[in-house]
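Per your request, structure below.
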């Protein structure tokens, strides 16, 4: 009898404990998922400050290159993989909007964003950063060889630059596609393939992506023998920033004159179907505000979209912004991207 009574009392205590606990909310923060490309980077402190201020946790879903990540977001539009997407650029801009996967959001921070970066009047995609894709060259290599470095796109088709250039495949690389667009904007649709024919005859080397081109073949950053590479106009600043010994001058330089560069812009947007709309809006606001914007330059070596964000000295001194870029409209890119890539492939790789 005592044993039975003990069992009954113990069971009653368990029931009371269970009922009491079921009324308590777990002491865990809310979470929000940011889907992005593999090259995205931001400091832990900036992430932590947002999480702490809003009592939430940010989960980062890295989904491949910019184009691959966007494809995944489009394919999962009926069951979105994240709340916010960062990394749509102006080479995939119209495609992203036509897929109708983003919610409009008129962030109050838009008043601080450069007007010329705001390409979507409905604010489904909001600009976060920008930079120029262009030729970079190894200054010491040209000094040692007593050869004048290239000053424009046309220069690299000359015989003195034979076997000196490495570029990225526009079918597999975002910088590669941006550089292809630079050549289209510079030479026109009737002239860009002639440029690439000459470049192929000049023994241009094509790699799958930026990492292989820059760290695998560019003479200033590797044991490679190519002193000219397609990269960013901010790459010289990165060389100085990450140098083991303090540098007064960058070992590389970029070619941005005479419409030789393409302006690359990256956007963020709220994915349609999110169940965390208010948190998603707060995250967008944070990404456009000064703290996040001033962290971008030394994380991804691009320029902040917020006009009030201060640049670090290394970018002020060693990074470049083209005065006049090669222009190709987002509508033209959307309508012709695949055709241009196929034509490039036929001329350069086959």
């Amino acid at each position: 009898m005592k044993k039975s009574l003990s069992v009954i009392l113990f069971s009653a205590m368990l029931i009371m404990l269970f009922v009491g606990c079921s009324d308590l909310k777990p002491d865990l923060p809310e979470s929000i998922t940011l889907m992005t490309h593999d090259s995205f980077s931001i400091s832990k402190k900036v992430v932590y400050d947002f999480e702490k201020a809003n009592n939430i946790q940010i989960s980062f879903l890295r989904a491949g290159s910019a184009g691959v990540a966007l494809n995944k977001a489009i394919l999962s539009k009926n069951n979105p993989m994240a709340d916010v997407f960062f990394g749509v650029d102006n080479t995939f801009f119209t495609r992203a909007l036509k897929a109708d996967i983003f919610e409009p959001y008129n962030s109050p921070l838009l008043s601080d964003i450069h007007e010329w970066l705001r390409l979507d009047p409905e604010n489904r995609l909001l600009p976060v950063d920008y930079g120029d894709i262009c030729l970079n060259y190894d200054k010491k290599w040209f000094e040692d060889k007593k050869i004048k470095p290239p000053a424009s796109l046309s220069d690299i088709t000359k015989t003195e630059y034979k076997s000196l250039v490495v570029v990225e495949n526009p079918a597999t690389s975002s910088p590669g596609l941006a550089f292809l667009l630079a050549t289209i904007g510079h030479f026109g649709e009737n002239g860009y393939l002639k440029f690439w024919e000459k470049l192929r005859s000049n023994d241009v080397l094509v790699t799958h992506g930026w990492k292989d081109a820059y760290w695998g073949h560019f003479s200033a950053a590797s044991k490679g023998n190519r002193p000219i590479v397609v990269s960013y106009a901010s790459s010289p600043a990165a060389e100085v920033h990450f140098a083991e010994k303090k540098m007064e001058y960058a070992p590389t330089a970029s070619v941005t004159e005479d419409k030789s560069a393409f302006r690359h812009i990256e956007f963020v947007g709220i994915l349609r179907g999110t169940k965390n709309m208010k948190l998603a809006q707060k995250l967008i606001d944070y990404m456009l505000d000064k703290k996040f914007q001033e962290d971008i330059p030394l994380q991804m070596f691009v320029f902040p979209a917020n006009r009030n964000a201060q640049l670090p000295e290394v970018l002020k001194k060693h990074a470049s912004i083209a005065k006049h870029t090669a222009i190709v409209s987002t509508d033209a890119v959307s309508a012709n991207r695949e055709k241009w890539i196929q034509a490039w492939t036929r001329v350069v790789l086959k």
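Residues 1-28 have pLDDT under 50 and may be disordered.

Regards,
D.
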